[in-house]
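User: Teach me something about this protein's shape.
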Amino acid sequence: VLAGNVVRGRAECIRAVVWYSDLVGFTRIADVQGAQTVLAMLNDYAEALVESIEAQGGHVLKFIGDGLLAIFPDRDESNGCERALDAAADARRRLDALNATRREAGLPVSDADVALHIGELLYGNVGSPRRLDFTVLGSAVNEAARIEALCSSLDQRVIVSSAFVEAGGAAVRARLVSLGRYALKGVARPQELYTLDPG
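Assistant: First, the predicted structure itself:
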């Protein structure tokens, strides 16, 4: 917006790291809590995630209910992957601290499932003449969402793709452990997925 890129249909092709995250068990919590409690909770968790992302140079593009879409663009792909991984690790620390504070106050707690992927994206304005949305589109976003959906079944809070690991190089690979190969809905071939090394 500040750069004046607010024309409908104006977009550019970029390659960037995609962050796709979602709160854990939010629907269940929202069903039993009042609207103000739910809104305050969303804001608490959004603040923790956004601060982690922005501290590493990421750009938050949109909130999708209790989900969040962000990108880490960088000419140096390995650097973009390292920054995204740093943000995910920092988010884990912030969420642990937030949950401790909320438990002490008797408030409901949640967590965030995070997927990191990298790929080609269409970055710009999409929508109608009266309502534009500045966002990213492309199969990389869809893949990130599919990977995030596996977090609960694999009992992991952060999962990254094989493309992310390849782009990140040795420094990123050294911080991760393999979860094995998995089929993703709508993706032709199974791929190896990774998570943060707990050690």
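Now, about its shape. The longest helix spans residues 77-104. The first strand starts at residue 11 and ends at 23. If you'd like, I can walk through any region in more detail.
User: That's plenty for now, thanks!
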